[in-house]
């Protein structure tokens, strides 16, 4: 596992609460991820994982609490605000345009235009995009199909790799960014899962901070440095993966084990 490369968290959420009317989906959540660290976000259905991920990605604005990226406080009104701050989200549906080729999907929204009058008219330079895409995937250590192959012809594992790589390319700047992964190995076979695991670790080794939401406990033990466990909208555990008993993790997830952070007793 890679060690954090800075004393300042890449992403830090403090006192996060999310209310939907009288329903409190998240209650006083503190969570952070360091550069180059993989944090597994675990919990049963309804624990608040998806809601917290949406707060991190800018899809939901919390009722209370603060969000800081590399020590600078931000207010996310939309996912575009989070993306501008260096936070990228990979959803379960992947958001790929299947009839288009790999290179086009990797450059979606950031296309390279041709030079001269054709560029002024909005014509894209597909050759340049394929070349730059190959270079970016080489840097990530990704081996997939030719850049000209349509996404609809890829396997499920290859599509997942393309979606993750697209976000990694966008956040992997000089200081590194934050990548949020929602169940990245759901419905993948063993070999495809291993490929995604290897990609996650390579991205972390390059300084990208990663939050991994998963129900797959073996995946968490394979790639994560630390686990944050939610139960009914509260953080009940925040522990290193190494040395943490799996039965304890299951107990925190199901609620049969007491929280590490008991609620304060009213005076």
From TrEMBL:
ABC transporter domain mapped to chain residues: 11-257
UniProt KW ATP-binding keyword: yes
Pfam family, one: ABC_tran
SMART domains, per the entry: AAA
Domain of life according to the entry: Bacteria
Cross-referenced PROSITE patterns: ABC_TRANSPORTER_1, ABC_TRANSPORTER_2
Listed GO MF terms: ATP binding; ATP hydrolysis activity
Alphabetized Gene3D superfamilies for the sequence: P-loop containing nucleotide triphosphate hydrolases
InterPro entries: AAA+_ATPase, ABC_carbohydrate_import_ATPase, ABC_transporter-like_ATP-bd, ABC_transporter-like_CS, P-loop_NTPase
SUPFAM superfamilies per UniProt: P-loop containing nucleoside triphosphate hydrolases
Keywords: ATP-binding, Nucleotide-binding
Listed name of the protein: Sugar ABC transporter ATP-binding protein
